[in-house]
């Protein structure tokens, strides 16, 4: 089995739109990311790779998750395409190019693209992707090459309001 975990960045500050790339997390966003990261740790989720949009709010969310999960934050890979925009088809290509020794892959980024990625990969998704939404998509395969549209099964979805 391969597990893909897609995370929309946590809540960002409500200003700085003129420099969107460098918008930071709000205090609430930092708390939400910490809660979700701790919950993943309690579920024994261990990332083999973390890839993030280089935008401040996404990368900071990834670093908070990495800290909670014991993943070295210096190993988080930055992919500018996750900020600038790629299609669902191109995202699936990224997933399919992962080495097969990776079992659990995390991707951190932005809506609306991340909502579209989740919707494209799952057989059924009727949820939303609020900030810090974390969706696990499981593929019944030993090779990422076989991860394809409508082929994933939702393992779980965590959203901050679940933990208030």
Strand order of the largest sheet: 3-2-4-1-5-6
Number of helices: 5
Overall domain count? 1
> Any idea what the radius of gyration is?
15 Å
* Helical residue percent band: 25-40%
CATH architecture identity = 3-Layer(aba) Sandwich
Q: Count all strands and give the number.
A: 6
Using the coordinates above, name the CATH class: Alpha Beta
Overall shape: it is globular
Mean pLDDT: 95
Characterize the biggest β-sheet.
6 strands, mixed
Determine the CATH topology: Rossmann fold
The CATH homologous superfamily is called: Phosphoglycerate mutase-like
Descriptive terms for the model:
six-stranded mixed beta sheet, 19% strand, alpha/beta, 5 helices, Rossmann fold, 164 residues
Descriptive overview:
This protein has a single domain (2-163), classed as 3-Layer(aba) Sandwich (Rossmann fold), CATH 3.40.50. It has helices at residues 27-42, 56-69, 81-84, 88-96, 113-121, and strands at residues 2-8, 49-52, 77-78, 104-109, 134-139, 153-158. The protein has a six-stranded mixed beta sheet with strand order 3-2-4-1-5-6, sandwiched between helices. The chain starts with a strand and ends in a 6-residue tail after the last strand. It is globular and about 40 Å long. By secondary structure, it is α/β, with parallel strands linked by helices. It is built from five helices and six strands; from the N terminus they run E-H-E-H-E-H-H-E-H-E-E.
């Amino acid at each position: 089995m391969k597990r893909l975990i897609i995370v929309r960045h946590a809540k960002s500050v409500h200003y700085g739109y003129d420099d969107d790339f460098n918008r930071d997390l709000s205090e609430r966003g930092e708390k939400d990311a910490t809660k979700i990261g701790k919950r993943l740790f309690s579920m024994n989720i261990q990332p083999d790779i973390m890839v993030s949009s280089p935008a401040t709010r996404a990368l900071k969310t990834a670093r908070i998750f990495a800290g909670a999960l014991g993943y070295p934050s210096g190993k988080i890979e930055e992919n500018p395409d996750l900020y600038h925009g790629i299609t669902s088809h191109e995202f699936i290509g990224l997933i399919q190019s992962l080495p097969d020794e990776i079992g659990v892959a995390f991707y951190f980024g932005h809506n609306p693209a991340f909502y579209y990625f989740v919707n494209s990969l799952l057989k059924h998704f009727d949820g939303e992707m609020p900030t810090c939404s974390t969706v696990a998509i499981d593929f019944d395969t030993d090779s990422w090459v076989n991860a394809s549209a409508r082929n994933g099964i939702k393992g779980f979805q965590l959203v901050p309001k679940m933990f208030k």
